Amino acid sequence: MSSDSSSSSSKPLPPGMVIGPDGKPCKICTAFRNWKPRVDKSKQPPNAPAGQQKTAAMMAAFASGTGFTASQSQAQSQSTIGVEPTRPANCPPDVEQLGNATWTFLHTTAAYYPEKPTMQHRVNMLSLLRALPVLYPCSTCAQHLGENMKAHPPDVSSRTALSKWLCEEHNEVNERLGKEKFECTIEKLDERWKDGPSDGSCD
């Protein structure tokens, strides 16, 4: 191993940075906010565009959990501490965007899966799910999913069974990430992924 690689590997990693199977920082496994360094507003030139300053203050309020209702003084004080960078729309996906898109696709596919699937439906769905631990770009996510699928194999016997299985898998990930769990009843799942709320707000 060269001294170059050993010195780079001995450097402490930024918080939230994930190492890939090649031993290097994994961009697709890491959230954008952990990949890009925080911006210290106190070190920015005073002639920074007003729009940029306002956006930074808003992002600081949002990142601190105070949301968009934070007072201007709160937002300004947070902006001097340092704010997470705003991810440009034309960037490749990070782990969060990829995860959200994947879960949306899988839950929606399950919502429209037949209640009485044919053998071909079952084979195709199992092929899709079994391909994820092999092909998913985030290697750590793929490994976790593969281990979970071995412990709790996919249930493709019906639309209801598949929807609930996916919900439980998603909740396992949410729990690991410290996120709120979703209620895995078919009524709640259909409301979220197929029919929308009964108040018609999504119609």
TrEMBL record:
<feature type="domain" description="ERV/ALR sulfhydryl oxidase">
    <location>
        <begin position="91"/>
        <end position="193"/>
    </location>
</feature>
<protein>
    <recommendedName>
        <fullName>Sulfhydryl oxidase</fullName>
        <ecNumber>1.8.3.2</ecNumber>
    </recommendedName>
</protein>
<keyword id="KW-0496">Mitochondrion</keyword>
<feature type="compositionally biased region" description="Low complexity">
    <location>
        <begin position="1"/>
        <end position="10"/>
    </location>
</feature>
<keyword id="KW-0285">Flavoprotein</keyword>
<keyword id="KW-0274">FAD</keyword>
<dbReference type="GO" id="GO:0016971">
    <property type="term" value="F:flavin-dependent sulfhydryl oxidase activity"/>
</dbReference>
<dbReference type="Pfam" id="PF04777">
    <property type="entry name" value="Evr1_Alr"/>
</dbReference>
<dbReference type="InterPro" id="IPR036774">
    <property type="entry name" value="ERV/ALR_sulphydryl_oxid_sf"/>
</dbReference>
<dbReference type="InterPro" id="IPR039799">
    <property type="entry name" value="ALR/ERV"/>
</dbReference>
<dbReference type="InterPro" id="IPR017905">
    <property type="entry name" value="ERV/ALR_sulphydryl_oxidase"/>
</dbReference>
<feature type="region of interest" description="Disordered">
    <location>
        <begin position="1"/>
        <end position="24"/>
    </location>
</feature>
<dbReference type="GO" id="GO:0005758">
    <property type="term" value="C:mitochondrial intermembrane space"/>
</dbReference>
<keyword id="KW-0560">Oxidoreductase</keyword>
<dbReference type="GO" id="GO:0050660">
    <property type="term" value="F:flavin adenine dinucleotide binding"/>
</dbReference>
<keyword id="KW-1015">Disulfide bond</keyword>
